[in-house]
Amino acid sequence: MGQPKRQSTGSTRSAASRKIGGAVETQSPRPAVASKSAPGKPIVIATRGSLLALAQANQVLGMCRAAFPARTFELRVIKTTGDRLQRASLADPSSKLPKGLFTKELEVALLAGDADFAVHSLKDLPTDLPEGLRLAAVLEREDTRDLLIARAGEFVPARPAKAASRLAHLPAGALIATSSTRRVAQLREHRPDLRFVEIRGNVQTRMRKLGADPSLAGTILAAAGLKRLGIKRRADGSLEVPSDGKSGAPIPPMQGWPMELEFMLPAVGQAAIGLEGRSGDKITAAILKKLNHAPTLTCVRLERAFLSGFGGGCHSPVAALATLAGDVVRFRAVAYEGERVWRRAVQLPLPGAVAAARRMGREARKALA
Question: Which CATH architecture best describes the domain 13-139+269-292?
């Protein structure tokens, strides 16, 4: 599941490194920020350095500056273990990757006082946070769907437009590039003949790999990530992909089709940006409260409770989605263990919904044990 709870540390980086598995952040040393940001001091926002992470962090930075024009905010880029292990398998359970693959070094900075809060793709944030840290806020959620991405015009006619129907046009035994066990499990349930290969790198890198390898029929990407990177989907499904500033092979024309939620449920927390801060930091808490989107926070808490109850981690073949309708939550979840599938779709009254979702996670784990 998520990263084990650890004791909060003092105000130095070395103390934090000892307490959190020896992890250290890779930036040059700088004076530690006070554990409670004093008025007039910059509020330091920790982020990964990928294109998507920076797009999300800059969105948060803009919101902070608009809501608190008298305050100074700055970004601090930190390289994580996941950024360094670009060739490591995310799908192979024998790879024994550390928990908090894309978050741990940011949490080191928070506990050391080197940052005031961190910006995460919430789907990457473990459900079990280090002691002294909390999920303080989330931004309003984007489109939660995944997109089937393929080279333009390769294997599908102009119609039908639905991704589930598009998938039916994939040739028998087609090779799909994805590192997500969740996506593989759901695709395999509908098309057991499909084959899969892992793929790493940012969105543009994955598209380049797809364009350069004719053996690949397609890949799956999150709609929210594409939008945040400025990738636009036209009415005919073709994608307008801006340059990522990297040299190398150009990205060939691509098309993408949203996959229906009945066919492909998202990862827990997918399409939500999570803001993690220190417990007891009242100044930062007041800032994050202003940014928080309460309905999204309610929904992702249910999803994370389900994952916590299931006992899986961010890379488990588990999917869940909560949506609000007044004082009722529509909750859908699916979990896989080999060929076995556990699936539920329920309506939950809002009071007690988090506890109910956690119980459902335990029920799923027991059913698949």
Answer: 3-Layer(aba) Sandwich (3.40)
